[in-house]
Amino acid sequence: xxxxxxxxxxxxxxxxxxxxxxxxxxxxxxxxxxxxxxxxxxxxxxxxxxxxxxxxxxxxxxxxxxxxxxxxxxxxxxxxxxxxxxxxxxxxxxxxxxxxxxxxxxxxxxxxxxxxxxxxxxxxxxxxxxxxxxxxxxxxxxxxxxxxxxxxxxxxxxxxxxxxxxxxxxxxxxxxxxxxxxxxxxxxxxxx
Length: 192
What we know:
Layout: H1 2-13, H2 16-42, H3 72-76, E1 110-117, E2 124-130, E3 133-138, E4 148-153, E5 157-162, E6 165-170, E7 174-176, E8 182-184
Antiparallel strand pairs: 1-2, 2-3, 4-5, 5-6, 7-8
């Protein structure tokens, strides 16, 4: 009995954490090798050293060339990614430029609080307050409780169609001048 007790006491003195790590690492290596063998059993194995040779190319093991040539033209006529059709965008809106007539400020009781513009001229989204309620509007959308429709969105203004006339709605805090150029409002006490 004492020999068993002595053996158990000596086992208790061994570094258990290091032994556990060693056994776990050996188990993981064994499981990984089994999984690798199973993977190679499941995958179809080819001839060792075999290589793919496309048609029309010389075989690497012989000097003869296959008599067929590769017909790319037949492949391109399949249009596997679809037929390319160039789109032409037809718009009745003139592009804004320095030659365009001056668009007067709006007479409607609207406040432009924010704009998000895209790289394309006049496209974007505007946050407009009308009758105390804010809404988000894009090109072609009607502004709630008004007859106005958003036509173009720029970083500092929105061009709207109010009935038969076009009007400019400037971003809150920016004054519209007769050159159609935005100038920020400066308070008298602000210093540059």
